[in-house]
Design goal:
alpha/beta; globular; single chain; 2,3-Dihydroxybiphenyl 1,2-Dioxygenase, domain 1
Length: 162
Amino acid sequence: MVDFTLVHEFLEKIEADLKMLGLNLDDFFIDHICYRVSSTLRYDELKSELEKDHNLLHEAMISNRPIATFKLFKPIVYKHHRIPLLELPAPKEEADYKEGFEHIECVIDESFVNFSSKYENVDFDWKGAQKSHNPELRLKLGKLSVKFHHTSLEDVINNEVK
């Protein structure tokens, strides 16, 4: 099962890393949190376990592997944040992932250019900013990361399902 007792330590690390770069986690809506697994077998196991207690919103093939998104029965609560979704991606074939929480995704309401200009000392990864489907601005924090989007994952899923 996903060890939710580790989520606070993970979020504290992200918050501290952001603070060192001049970003305040309290300024953002954390849309979802990502939990990585190391094998397809483990993905299938965790997906089955999560389906018992949470609502599987959507499972889609993205980059040649399934990604499941769950609406949590109880949101993850961290300070004033209430994180409603958990993303569970199967690993890419060529990647070697350690199991655990890996990134959060936040929704921002301004352009990536305006947002990034507030943090000139921060080296954002712009690779995903041109994606046609839910573009993102990524901030790598060692093995962890924060991704910034304009649309929440739940809204993206609702639009896909329609």
